[in-house]
Amino acid sequence: MLAKRRGSTPFDPRLDEWTPARSIELMDKNGVRATVVSVSTPGIWFGNADEAARLARTANEFAAGMARDYPGRFGFFAALALPNVDASLREIEYAFDTLKADGIGLLSSYDGRYLGDPAFAPVFDEMQRRRTIVHVHPAEPQCCTNVVPNVPMGVAEFGFDTTRAVTNLLYSGTLKRCPDVRFILSHGGGTVPFLAGRIAQRSAVTAVAADTQGRMAELKKLYFDTSSVTNASALASLLKLVPATQVMFGSDYPNATARALVDSLAELRQLVQSGDITNRQLQSIESDTAVALFPRLRG
Prior knowledge:
CATH architecture: Alpha-Beta Barrel
Structural class: alpha/beta
Strand order of the largest sheet: 1-2-3-6-7-8-9
Distance between the termini: 16 Å
Helix content: 40-55%
Strand content: 5-15%
């Protein structure tokens, strides 16, 4: 959820079962003008290419219907049928030219391959041609299941998988090759802000052993949402990497509860009161960054 906020009213626990109407009710109760929806983890790839293509089309037409039925309240990131490249290219064309999508929603990896994989290059080249906004949400990594027993995947591995995806996009040259693709990373980019200097440093791999400053510049072009990172320490690290004009509110709703949405909005306000962020930064996070990227959702 990318929010334009206008105030706050008490939490309503009935809204945790998601429907478009209940989402609108939750938004209205908490001053959220508009939201951009996407298909989150586990996505639509379950090993069958035809099924993935069908699910992508179904999800995208449903989201486009929401945008049509609730004008100005919903935008959407279109789902793709990756790792099926040909079906994904067809869906990009349909999503933008027919459904008028606001961007593309991707997971950090597909079938064990991260986004900078050479096989996915045609998809990113087409998104570069269209100057696409791409929202990236972590997937459950095949490499790292149950690394720490009894700890949910979302506690640590989701953040690490976003970082793996960004590092892969950087070192594969995809970020440099696609300068007009605007990437929005969920959950504050995982561990990217904290590890940015290390990621940008000289690599032991000869082919990518140069230009630390250039790699840091690529990282500083990224956008981030605030889902799970509205606490002072996480947001401080993020705002050292990029300005607030590249940070926007994200809720993770309904994966995160309606209560979490309300709490995160309140937490941002508390950070202003404590001096951790300024009112101007809060305005960028709550509305201005999203409005600049998605002007059709301007209130």
